[in-house]
Amino acid sequence: MEEPVDTATAILASAAVLLRERSFDDISYRALADEVGISERTIYRQYPTRAHLLAALATWIEQTCFPLPPFVTVSDFCAAVHERFRAFDAQPAYAFVGARASAISPTLDPEPAYITRAIEAMLDVAAPTLNRRDRRRVATALCYFSSAMFWARLRTGFDLDAAEICDAFDRAAGPVLAKLPATTRSRPTTARETPNPPVTAWAEP
Q1: Are 202 and 167 within 8 A, CB to CB?
Q2: Which residue segment(s) compose the domain that 25 sits in?
Q3: What is the DSSP letter of 25?
Q4: What is the pTM of this model?
Q5: In the chain, how many domains are there?
Q6: What distance in Å separates the CA atoms of residue 18 and residue 27, rounded to the nearest whole number?
Q7: Residues 150 and 68 in one domain
């Protein structure tokens, strides 16, 4: 019998429910099958390995729990990243799944993530004259600094909260954004202002 079209989505949604009670490593295919009400074999057909399940779950969580606010300008992008980090802080178990998935080798050969395409589109508008090499470097760096992995490293490695991670993002992204024409840069509203901030690429010309 042909499986329902939404079986894959049901599996991911149920895995997200189980994440509220246990870590990803503690979610067995048997427990997941019981949660969905299907056989383990059905789950294996959808996700042959746990790496496949992790990658798909991270993408689903990204789309459903952490939708990125739209942005066109550099300032809009920075504000969107701040909102993204605050959302990660509110649901850390989900954010850590995204961070872990980005650290493994690709298994599904997915299309570029929405944030990657959005950053590239922003650069097309903000810096149309930027040479291809620098454009790639800027896009790659901004993708990392706005990622769940960046958030997770600062959260677990330095015990920073969302406001502190937003500040770290601003300072890390500053030198990268310095490659953009000065007219495209402006200082975003940070989650927490610090006294006597150093002069960085955020400064208005």
Answers
A1: no
A2: 1-48
A3: G
A4: 0.78
A5: 2
A6: 7
A7: yes
